[in-house]
Amino acid sequence: xxxxxxxxxxxxxxxxxxxxxxxxxxxxxxxxxxxxxxxxxxxxxxxxxxxxxxxxxxxxxxxxxxxxxxxxxxxxxxxxxxxxxxxxxxxxxxxxxxxxxxxxxxxxxxxxxxxxxxxxxxxxxxxxxxxxxxxxxxxxxxxxxxxxxxxxxxxxxxxxxxxxxxxxxxxxxxxxxxxxxxxxxxxxxxxxxxxxxxxxxxxxxxxxxxxxxxxxxxxxxxxxxxxxxxxxxxxxxxxxxxxxxxxxxxxxxxxxxxxxxxxxxxxxxxxxxxxxxxxxxxxxxxxxxxxxxxxxxxxxxxxxxxxxxxxxxxxxxxxxxxxxxxxxxxxxxxxxxxxxxxxxxxxxxxxxxxxxxxxxxxxxxxxxxxxxxxxxxxxxxxxxxxxxxxxxxxxxxxxxxxxxxxxxxxxxxxxxxxxxxxxxxxxxxxxxxxxxxxxxxxxxxxxxxxxxxxxxxxxxxxxxxxxxxxxxxxxxxxxxxxxxxxxxxxxxxxxxxxxxxxxxxxxxxxxxx
Length: 513
Description:
The protein is of the alpha+beta class. It has 18 helices and 23 strands.
Protein backbone atom coordinates (compact mmCIF):
# COMPACT_ATOMS: atom_id res chain seq x y z
CA UNK A 1 0.00 0.00 0.00
CA UNK A 2 1.37 3.38 -0.98
CA UNK A 3 1.53 6.51 1.17
CA UNK A 4 -1.11 7.97 -1.15
CA UNK A 5 -3.54 5.20 -0.19
CA UNK A 6 -2.70 5.75 3.47
CA UNK A 7 -3.74 9.38 3.14
CA UNK A 8 -7.00 8.13 1.62
CA UNK A 9 -7.51 5.83 4.59
CA UNK A 10 -7.06 8.75 6.98
CA UNK A 11 -9.52 10.88 4.99
CA UNK A 12 -11.96 7.95 4.80
CA UNK A 13 -11.86 7.60 8.59
CA UNK A 14 -13.14 11.14 9.11
CA UNK A 15 -15.60 11.18 6.21
CA UNK A 16 -17.34 7.99 7.30
CA UNK A 17 -17.35 8.40 11.08
CA UNK A 18 -14.44 6.18 12.10
CA UNK A 19 -11.90 8.58 13.62
CA UNK A 20 -11.99 12.33 14.34
CA UNK A 21 -9.24 14.63 15.63
CA UNK A 22 -9.89 15.23 19.32
CA UNK A 23 -11.45 18.64 20.12
CA UNK A 24 -11.72 19.20 16.39
CA UNK A 25 -13.69 22.45 16.66
CA UNK A 26 -10.76 23.95 18.58
CA UNK A 27 -8.18 22.84 16.05
CA UNK A 28 -7.53 19.40 17.49
CA UNK A 29 -4.97 18.13 19.97
CA UNK A 30 -1.74 16.60 18.70
CA UNK A 31 -1.63 12.79 18.84
CA UNK A 32 -5.08 12.48 20.45
CA UNK A 33 -8.11 11.17 18.54
CA UNK A 34 -11.79 10.38 19.07
CA UNK A 35 -13.58 7.36 17.63
CA UNK A 36 -16.78 8.10 15.73
CA UNK A 37 -19.98 6.11 15.43
CA UNK A 38 -18.55 3.50 13.06
CA UNK A 39 -15.07 3.54 14.56
CA UNK A 40 -16.29 2.75 18.06
CA UNK A 41 -18.26 -0.25 16.75
CA UNK A 42 -15.25 -1.63 14.87
CA UNK A 43 -13.03 -0.99 17.88
CA UNK A 44 -15.48 -2.67 20.27
CA UNK A 45 -15.73 -5.68 17.95
CA UNK A 46 -11.95 -6.06 17.74
CA UNK A 47 -11.74 -5.79 21.53
CA UNK A 48 -14.50 -8.36 21.94
CA UNK A 49 -12.71 -10.73 19.56
CA UNK A 50 -9.56 -10.49 21.67
CA UNK A 51 -11.44 -10.76 24.98
CA UNK A 52 -13.47 -13.80 23.98
CA UNK A 53 -10.41 -15.49 22.44
CA UNK A 54 -8.67 -15.17 25.79
CA UNK A 55 -11.29 -15.59 28.50
CA UNK A 56 -14.01 -17.58 26.73
CA UNK A 57 -11.99 -19.95 24.57
CA UNK A 58 -9.43 -20.73 27.30
CA UNK A 59 -10.64 -22.32 30.55
CA UNK A 60 -7.52 -21.23 32.44
CA UNK A 61 -7.59 -17.50 31.56
CA UNK A 62 -9.75 -14.99 33.43
CA UNK A 63 -10.14 -11.24 33.12
CA UNK A 64 -9.91 -8.26 35.45
CA UNK A 65 -10.20 -4.48 35.20
CA UNK A 66 -7.70 -2.63 37.36
CA UNK A 67 -7.80 1.09 38.12
CA UNK A 68 -5.77 3.55 36.07
CA UNK A 69 -4.41 5.19 39.23
CA UNK A 70 -2.10 2.95 41.23
CA UNK A 71 0.04 3.45 44.31
CA UNK A 72 3.23 5.24 43.20
CA UNK A 73 5.39 2.47 44.67
CA UNK A 74 3.98 0.26 41.90
CA UNK A 75 5.99 2.17 39.32
CA UNK A 76 9.10 2.24 41.47
CA UNK A 77 8.94 -1.53 41.78
CA UNK A 78 8.29 -2.06 38.07
CA UNK A 79 11.26 0.09 37.11
CA UNK A 80 9.24 2.69 35.23
CA UNK A 81 10.23 5.64 37.41
CA UNK A 82 13.94 4.97 36.96
CA UNK A 83 14.06 3.29 33.58
CA UNK A 84 11.03 4.06 31.41
CA UNK A 85 12.97 6.21 28.98
CA UNK A 86 13.38 6.64 25.25
CA UNK A 87 16.50 8.01 23.54
CA UNK A 88 15.60 11.51 22.32
CA UNK A 89 17.34 13.65 19.69
CA UNK A 90 16.44 17.08 18.29
CA UNK A 91 17.14 18.60 14.90
CA UNK A 92 18.51 22.10 15.45
CA UNK A 93 17.13 23.45 12.18
CA UNK A 94 13.55 22.14 12.22
CA UNK A 95 13.31 22.23 16.05
CA UNK A 96 11.62 18.82 15.78
CA UNK A 97 12.19 16.05 18.30
CA UNK A 98 12.65 12.39 17.39
CA UNK A 99 13.31 9.04 18.99
CA UNK A 100 16.84 8.15 18.00
CA UNK A 101 16.08 4.42 17.76
CA UNK A 102 13.05 5.08 15.55
CA UNK A 103 15.17 7.17 13.17
CA UNK A 104 17.54 4.23 12.86
CA UNK A 105 14.71 1.70 12.46
CA UNK A 106 13.12 3.81 9.71
CA UNK A 107 16.53 3.97 8.00
CA UNK A 108 16.78 0.17 8.21
CA UNK A 109 13.32 -0.14 6.69
CA UNK A 110 14.44 1.91 3.68
CA UNK A 111 17.34 -0.48 3.19
CA UNK A 112 14.95 -3.45 3.47
CA UNK A 113 12.77 -1.90 0.78
CA UNK A 114 15.85 -1.74 -1.49
CA UNK A 115 16.32 -5.47 -0.92
CA UNK A 116 12.71 -6.16 -1.88
CA UNK A 117 13.05 -4.08 -5.04
CA UNK A 118 16.15 -6.04 -6.06
CA UNK A 119 14.29 -9.32 -5.46
CA UNK A 120 11.22 -8.13 -7.38
CA UNK A 121 13.38 -7.14 -10.37
CA UNK A 122 15.17 -10.48 -10.31
CA UNK A 123 11.88 -12.39 -10.07
CA UNK A 124 10.63 -10.66 -13.22
CA UNK A 125 13.91 -11.34 -15.00
CA UNK A 126 14.20 -15.05 -14.16
CA UNK A 127 10.52 -16.01 -14.07
CA UNK A 128 9.26 -19.28 -12.56
CA UNK A 129 12.76 -20.66 -11.98
CA UNK A 130 13.63 -17.83 -9.58
CA UNK A 131 14.65 -18.89 -6.06
CA UNK A 132 14.12 -15.85 -3.82
CA UNK A 133 15.72 -17.41 -0.74
CA UNK A 134 18.88 -18.36 -2.63
CA UNK A 135 19.03 -14.90 -4.22
CA UNK A 136 18.93 -13.29 -0.75
CA UNK A 137 21.91 -15.39 0.31
CA UNK A 138 24.07 -15.02 -2.79
CA UNK A 139 23.42 -11.74 -4.60
CA UNK A 140 26.27 -9.38 -3.63
CA UNK A 141 24.13 -6.25 -3.50
CA UNK A 142 21.38 -7.89 -1.44
CA UNK A 143 23.96 -9.44 0.91
CA UNK A 144 25.60 -6.04 1.35
CA UNK A 145 22.26 -4.42 2.18
CA UNK A 146 21.47 -7.13 4.73
CA UNK A 147 24.90 -6.80 6.33
CA UNK A 148 24.26 -3.07 6.69
CA UNK A 149 20.93 -3.75 8.45
CA UNK A 150 22.56 -6.30 10.77
CA UNK A 151 25.43 -3.96 11.55
CA UNK A 152 23.03 -1.16 12.53
CA UNK A 153 21.12 -3.64 14.71
CA UNK A 154 24.25 -4.70 16.57
CA UNK A 155 25.59 -1.19 17.11
CA UNK A 156 22.21 0.17 18.17
CA UNK A 157 21.70 -2.73 20.59
CA UNK A 158 25.13 -2.21 22.09
CA UNK A 159 24.65 1.53 22.55
CA UNK A 160 21.19 1.24 24.08
CA UNK A 161 22.05 -1.59 26.45
CA UNK A 162 25.25 0.06 27.67
CA UNK A 163 23.75 3.55 27.84
CA UNK A 164 26.35 4.84 25.39
CA UNK A 165 24.10 7.47 23.79
CA UNK A 166 27.05 9.19 22.10
CA UNK A 167 27.53 6.06 19.98
CA UNK A 168 23.87 6.24 18.93
CA UNK A 169 24.38 9.80 17.69
CA UNK A 170 27.54 8.74 15.87
CA UNK A 171 25.62 5.95 14.15
CA UNK A 172 22.92 8.38 13.01
CA UNK A 173 25.59 10.70 11.62
CA UNK A 174 27.55 7.93 9.91
CA UNK A 175 24.42 6.66 8.19
CA UNK A 176 23.69 10.15 6.91
CA UNK A 177 20.21 10.20 8.42
CA UNK A 178 18.49 13.54 7.83
CA UNK A 179 15.54 15.24 9.51
CA UNK A 180 12.36 14.40 7.56
CA UNK A 181 11.25 18.04 7.93
CA UNK A 182 14.37 20.13 7.32
CA UNK A 183 16.46 17.60 5.43
CA UNK A 184 19.48 18.60 7.55
CA UNK A 185 21.91 16.55 9.64
CA UNK A 186 22.25 19.18 12.35
CA UNK A 187 21.50 16.99 15.37
CA UNK A 188 21.75 17.56 19.11
CA UNK A 189 23.23 14.96 21.43
CA UNK A 190 21.03 11.95 22.27
CA UNK A 191 19.53 12.03 25.77
CA UNK A 192 17.01 10.01 27.77
CA UNK A 193 13.39 11.12 28.17
CA UNK A 194 10.93 9.63 30.70
CA UNK A 195 7.58 8.85 29.12
CA UNK A 196 5.29 8.81 32.16
CA UNK A 197 2.68 11.49 32.85
CA UNK A 198 2.50 12.55 36.49
CA UNK A 199 -0.34 14.17 38.40
CA UNK A 200 -1.22 14.99 41.99
CA UNK A 201 -3.68 13.58 44.47
CA UNK A 202 -4.32 14.25 48.15
CA UNK A 203 -1.49 12.92 50.30
CA UNK A 204 -1.16 9.14 50.29
CA UNK A 205 1.48 8.55 52.95
CA UNK A 206 4.33 10.56 54.38
CA UNK A 207 2.99 13.58 52.50
CA UNK A 208 3.52 11.86 49.14
CA UNK A 209 1.00 13.15 46.60
CA UNK A 210 2.50 12.42 43.17
CA UNK A 211 0.70 9.81 41.08
CA UNK A 212 1.21 8.61 37.52
CA UNK A 213 -1.12 7.83 34.68
CA UNK A 214 -0.30 4.20 34.03
CA UNK A 215 2.03 3.68 31.04
CA UNK A 216 0.90 0.06 30.70
CA UNK A 217 -1.89 -2.17 32.01
CA UNK A 218 0.30 -5.13 32.99
CA UNK A 219 1.13 -3.92 36.51
CA UNK A 220 -2.55 -3.94 37.48
CA UNK A 221 -2.50 -7.66 36.73
CA UNK A 222 0.66 -8.34 38.73
CA UNK A 223 -0.49 -6.58 41.90
CA UNK A 224 -3.74 -8.58 41.72
CA UNK A 225 -2.02 -11.92 41.13
CA UNK A 226 -2.82 -13.39 44.56
CA UNK A 227 -6.33 -11.90 44.66
CA UNK A 228 -7.24 -13.69 41.45
CA UNK A 229 -5.32 -16.88 42.16
CA UNK A 230 -6.87 -17.43 45.57
CA UNK A 231 -10.45 -16.34 44.82
CA UNK A 232 -10.48 -18.25 41.54
CA UNK A 233 -8.59 -21.24 42.98
CA UNK A 234 -6.40 -21.04 39.89
CA UNK A 235 -3.73 -23.65 39.20
CA UNK A 236 -0.59 -23.09 37.14
CA UNK A 237 -0.46 -22.49 34.28
CA UNK A 238 -3.14 -19.79 34.17
CA UNK A 239 -3.58 -16.35 32.70
CA UNK A 240 -5.08 -13.00 33.65
CA UNK A 241 -6.31 -10.72 30.86
CA UNK A 242 -7.10 -7.02 30.86
CA UNK A 243 -7.94 -4.25 28.42
CA UNK A 244 -7.73 -0.56 29.20
CA UNK A 245 -6.27 2.88 28.61
CA UNK A 246 -2.58 3.65 29.03
CA UNK A 247 -0.73 6.94 28.67
CA UNK A 248 2.73 7.78 27.38
CA UNK A 249 4.29 11.15 26.69
CA UNK A 250 5.58 10.00 23.32
CA UNK A 251 8.52 11.91 21.87
CA UNK A 252 7.28 11.26 18.35
CA UNK A 253 3.53 10.93 18.01
CA UNK A 254 2.75 10.55 14.33
CA UNK A 255 1.36 8.33 11.59
CA UNK A 256 -2.26 8.99 12.55
CA UNK A 257 -3.38 6.66 15.39
CA UNK A 258 -0.22 4.55 15.14
CA UNK A 259 1.51 6.31 18.02
CA UNK A 260 -0.67 8.27 20.42
CA UNK A 261 -0.34 9.75 23.87
CA UNK A 262 -3.58 8.08 25.06
CA UNK A 263 -4.16 4.56 23.77
CA UNK A 264 -5.64 1.21 24.69
CA UNK A 265 -3.81 -2.00 25.42
CA UNK A 266 -5.05 -5.59 25.48
CA UNK A 267 -2.70 -7.64 27.63
CA UNK A 268 -2.60 -11.15 29.03
CA UNK A 269 -0.09 -12.34 31.61
CA UNK A 270 0.31 -16.13 31.62
CA UNK A 271 1.76 -17.49 34.87
CA UNK A 272 3.82 -20.67 34.57
CA UNK A 273 6.19 -22.87 36.52
CA UNK A 274 9.81 -21.66 36.36
CA UNK A 275 11.73 -23.53 33.70
CA UNK A 276 8.71 -23.96 31.42
CA UNK A 277 8.47 -20.33 30.33
CA UNK A 278 10.33 -20.59 27.02
CA UNK A 279 8.12 -23.45 25.85
CA UNK A 280 5.02 -21.39 26.65
CA UNK A 281 6.66 -18.39 24.98
CA UNK A 282 6.95 -20.35 21.71
CA UNK A 283 3.39 -21.61 22.09
CA UNK A 284 1.90 -18.14 22.57
CA UNK A 285 4.03 -16.77 19.77
CA UNK A 286 2.33 -19.21 17.36
CA UNK A 287 -1.15 -18.79 18.84
CA UNK A 288 -1.08 -15.02 18.59
CA UNK A 289 -0.06 -15.01 14.93
CA UNK A 290 -2.85 -17.51 14.21
CA UNK A 291 -5.27 -15.13 15.95
CA UNK A 292 -4.26 -12.35 13.57
CA UNK A 293 -4.53 -14.58 10.51
CA UNK A 294 -8.11 -15.50 11.40
CA UNK A 295 -9.10 -11.91 10.56
CA UNK A 296 -8.30 -12.69 6.93
CA UNK A 297 -5.10 -10.61 6.78
CA UNK A 298 -2.65 -11.40 3.97
CA UNK A 299 0.02 -13.62 5.62
CA UNK A 300 2.80 -11.86 3.70
CA UNK A 301 1.91 -8.63 5.53
CA UNK A 302 3.04 -10.11 8.85
CA UNK A 303 6.43 -11.03 10.22
CA UNK A 304 8.16 -11.80 13.52
CA UNK A 305 10.87 -9.40 14.67
CA UNK A 306 13.10 -10.33 17.59
CA UNK A 307 13.93 -7.45 19.91
CA UNK A 308 17.23 -5.69 19.39
CA UNK A 309 17.25 -4.59 23.03
CA UNK A 310 15.60 -6.83 25.60
CA UNK A 311 13.60 -5.04 28.28
CA UNK A 312 15.00 -5.23 31.79
CA UNK A 313 12.40 -7.86 32.74
CA UNK A 314 12.68 -10.21 29.72
CA UNK A 315 14.71 -13.27 28.74
CA UNK A 316 13.00 -13.53 25.33
CA UNK A 317 10.90 -11.08 23.32
CA UNK A 318 9.46 -10.87 19.83
CA UNK A 319 7.16 -8.48 18.01
CA UNK A 320 4.47 -9.39 15.53
CA UNK A 321 4.83 -6.68 12.89
CA UNK A 322 2.44 -5.66 10.14
CA UNK A 323 3.45 -4.04 6.85
CA UNK A 324 1.82 -0.63 7.09
CA UNK A 325 2.21 1.84 4.19
CA UNK A 326 5.14 3.33 6.09
CA UNK A 327 6.86 -0.03 6.63
CA UNK A 328 6.73 -2.94 9.05
CA UNK A 329 5.72 -1.79 12.54
CA UNK A 330 4.95 -3.56 15.80
CA UNK A 331 1.35 -4.47 16.50
CA UNK A 332 1.80 -7.04 19.24
CA UNK A 333 4.59 -8.13 21.56
CA UNK A 334 5.15 -11.53 23.15
CA UNK A 335 7.57 -11.42 26.09
CA UNK A 336 8.97 -13.92 28.54
CA UNK A 337 9.11 -11.66 31.62
CA UNK A 338 10.68 -14.23 34.00
CA UNK A 339 9.76 -13.61 37.66
CA UNK A 340 10.90 -9.99 37.60
CA UNK A 341 7.52 -8.31 38.16
CA UNK A 342 6.16 -10.46 40.96
CA UNK A 343 9.59 -10.55 42.56
CA UNK A 344 9.92 -6.77 42.55
CA UNK A 345 6.39 -6.24 43.91
CA UNK A 346 7.10 -8.77 46.63
CA UNK A 347 10.27 -6.84 47.52
CA UNK A 348 8.68 -3.38 47.55
CA UNK A 349 5.36 -4.30 49.18
CA UNK A 350 6.71 -6.72 51.77
CA UNK A 351 3.91 -9.16 50.84
CA UNK A 352 4.58 -12.72 49.66
CA UNK A 353 3.47 -13.14 46.03
CA UNK A 354 4.09 -16.83 45.71
CA UNK A 355 2.26 -19.85 44.39
CA UNK A 356 1.99 -23.02 46.46
CA UNK A 357 2.41 -25.98 44.14
CA UNK A 358 0.39 -28.91 45.52
CA UNK A 359 2.24 -31.36 43.27
CA UNK A 360 5.70 -30.52 44.63
CA UNK A 361 4.71 -29.07 48.03
CA UNK A 362 6.82 -25.98 47.42
CA UNK A 363 6.15 -22.27 47.11
CA UNK A 364 7.74 -20.18 44.40
CA UNK A 365 7.31 -17.02 42.36
CA UNK A 366 5.80 -18.00 38.99
CA UNK A 367 7.37 -16.94 35.73
CA UNK A 368 5.29 -14.94 33.26
CA UNK A 369 4.74 -14.99 29.51
CA UNK A 370 3.02 -11.85 28.27
CA UNK A 371 1.04 -11.10 25.14
CA UNK A 372 0.44 -7.38 24.65
CA UNK A 373 -1.38 -5.83 21.70
CA UNK A 374 -2.35 -2.24 20.99
CA UNK A 375 -6.04 -1.96 20.16
CA UNK A 376 -5.58 1.29 18.25
CA UNK A 377 -2.80 -0.19 16.12
CA UNK A 378 -4.95 -3.26 15.46
CA UNK A 379 -7.76 -0.90 14.40
CA UNK A 380 -5.42 0.89 11.97
CA UNK A 381 -4.12 -2.43 10.66
CA UNK A 382 -7.66 -3.63 9.99
CA UNK A 383 -8.52 -0.48 8.06
CA UNK A 384 -5.29 -0.47 6.01
CA UNK A 385 -5.85 -4.10 5.07
CA UNK A 386 -9.56 -3.67 4.33
CA UNK A 387 -9.45 -0.47 2.24
CA UNK A 388 -10.08 -1.28 -1.43
CA UNK A 389 -10.81 0.70 -4.57
CA UNK A 390 -12.47 -1.16 -7.44
CA UNK A 391 -13.62 -0.10 -10.88
CA UNK A 392 -17.30 -0.95 -11.46
CA UNK A 393 -18.96 0.07 -14.70
CA UNK A 394 -16.55 2.95 -15.14
CA UNK A 395 -16.95 4.21 -11.57
CA UNK A 396 -14.71 3.68 -8.54
CA UNK A 397 -16.20 1.65 -5.73
CA UNK A 398 -14.56 2.24 -2.35
CA UNK A 399 -15.14 -0.51 0.15
CA UNK A 400 -13.79 -1.88 3.40
CA UNK A 401 -13.35 -5.65 3.17
CA UNK A 402 -13.44 -6.11 6.92
CA UNK A 403 -14.02 -9.56 8.35
CA UNK A 404 -17.84 -9.70 8.71
CA UNK A 405 -17.58 -10.53 12.43
CA UNK A 406 -15.85 -7.22 13.24
CA UNK A 407 -17.66 -4.97 10.74
CA UNK A 408 -19.38 -1.99 12.46
CA UNK A 409 -22.78 -2.71 10.88
CA UNK A 410 -23.63 -6.30 10.08
CA UNK A 411 -26.50 -5.64 7.69
CA UNK A 412 -28.28 -2.65 6.20
CA UNK A 413 -32.01 -2.94 5.57
CA UNK A 414 -33.01 -0.95 2.48
CA UNK A 415 -36.69 -0.37 1.64
CA UNK A 416 -36.81 0.23 -2.10
CA UNK A 417 -39.27 3.12 -1.71
CA UNK A 418 -40.71 5.05 1.24
CA UNK A 419 -44.28 3.91 0.65
CA UNK A 420 -46.58 0.96 -0.10
CA UNK A 421 -45.79 -0.73 3.22
CA UNK A 422 -42.09 -1.26 2.47
CA UNK A 423 -40.82 0.95 5.35
CA UNK A 424 -43.06 -0.94 7.77
CA UNK A 425 -41.73 -4.33 6.58
CA UNK A 426 -38.17 -3.02 6.83
CA UNK A 427 -38.89 -1.96 10.41
CA UNK A 428 -40.25 -5.44 11.17
CA UNK A 429 -37.08 -7.08 9.84
CA UNK A 430 -34.98 -4.62 11.84
CA UNK A 431 -36.83 -5.55 15.03
CA UNK A 432 -36.22 -9.25 14.36
CA UNK A 433 -32.46 -8.79 14.00
CA UNK A 434 -31.47 -5.88 16.24
CA UNK A 435 -31.24 -7.81 19.52
CA UNK A 436 -28.51 -10.05 18.09
CA UNK A 437 -26.75 -7.80 15.58
CA UNK A 438 -26.04 -4.17 14.87
CA UNK A 439 -28.30 -3.57 11.86
CA UNK A 440 -29.34 -0.32 10.25
CA UNK A 441 -32.24 0.96 8.15
CA UNK A 442 -31.12 3.17 5.25
CA UNK A 443 -33.87 4.76 3.15
CA UNK A 444 -32.25 7.88 1.65
CA UNK A 445 -31.13 8.24 -2.01
CA UNK A 446 -31.15 5.65 -4.78
CA UNK A 447 -30.47 2.01 -4.03
CA UNK A 448 -27.10 2.26 -5.82
CA UNK A 449 -25.92 5.15 -3.65
CA UNK A 450 -27.04 3.31 -0.54
CA UNK A 451 -25.03 0.25 -1.60
CA UNK A 452 -21.94 2.44 -2.02
CA UNK A 453 -22.34 4.02 1.42
CA UNK A 454 -22.63 0.62 3.04
CA UNK A 455 -19.61 -0.66 1.09
CA UNK A 456 -17.60 2.31 2.37
CA UNK A 457 -18.21 1.43 6.04
CA UNK A 458 -17.68 -2.31 5.49
CA UNK A 459 -21.27 -3.59 5.90
CA UNK A 460 -21.18 -7.26 4.78
CA UNK A 461 -24.82 -7.50 3.65
CA UNK A 462 -27.48 -5.21 2.26
CA UNK A 463 -31.06 -6.47 2.58
CA UNK A 464 -33.35 -4.86 0.01
CA UNK A 465 -37.07 -4.87 0.73
CA UNK A 466 -39.17 -4.58 -2.45
CA UNK A 467 -42.80 -5.07 -3.46
CA UNK A 468 -42.28 -8.82 -3.99
CA UNK A 469 -41.18 -9.01 -0.35
CA UNK A 470 -44.75 -8.11 0.68
CA UNK A 471 -46.31 -10.97 -1.25
CA UNK A 472 -43.58 -13.63 -1.29
CA UNK A 473 -41.97 -13.08 2.11
CA UNK A 474 -38.43 -12.85 0.78
CA UNK A 475 -35.83 -10.12 0.26
CA UNK A 476 -32.76 -9.50 -1.90
CA UNK A 477 -29.49 -9.97 -0.04
CA UNK A 478 -26.42 -8.37 -1.63
CA UNK A 479 -22.92 -9.53 -0.68
CA UNK A 480 -20.45 -6.68 -0.10
CA UNK A 481 -17.40 -8.40 -1.57
CA UNK A 482 -18.87 -10.13 -4.62
CA UNK A 483 -21.88 -7.83 -5.16
CA UNK A 484 -23.89 -10.97 -5.90
CA UNK A 485 -27.60 -10.77 -5.08
CA UNK A 486 -29.79 -13.66 -3.93
CA UNK A 487 -33.36 -13.98 -2.72
CA UNK A 488 -33.64 -15.11 0.90
CA UNK A 489 -36.74 -15.83 2.97
CA UNK A 490 -37.23 -13.28 5.73
CA UNK A 491 -37.39 -16.01 8.37
CA UNK A 492 -33.96 -17.27 7.20
CA UNK A 493 -32.14 -13.94 7.65
CA UNK A 494 -31.20 -14.65 11.25
CA UNK A 495 -29.62 -17.99 10.27
CA UNK A 496 -27.73 -16.29 7.45
CA UNK A 497 -26.22 -13.72 9.80
CA UNK A 498 -25.47 -16.37 12.42
CA UNK A 499 -23.45 -18.35 9.90
CA UNK A 500 -21.59 -15.41 8.34
CA UNK A 501 -21.15 -12.52 10.75
CA UNK A 502 -21.30 -13.87 14.32
CA UNK A 503 -18.19 -13.73 16.50
CA UNK A 504 -18.17 -17.54 16.67
CA UNK A 505 -17.12 -17.63 12.98
CA UNK A 506 -13.83 -16.09 14.08
CA UNK A 507 -13.41 -17.99 17.33
CA UNK A 508 -13.84 -21.37 15.59
CA UNK A 509 -10.68 -20.63 13.58
CA UNK A 510 -8.47 -20.22 16.64
CA UNK A 511 -9.69 -23.02 18.90
CA UNK A 512 -6.82 -25.51 19.25
CA UNK A 513 -7.53 -28.79 17.51
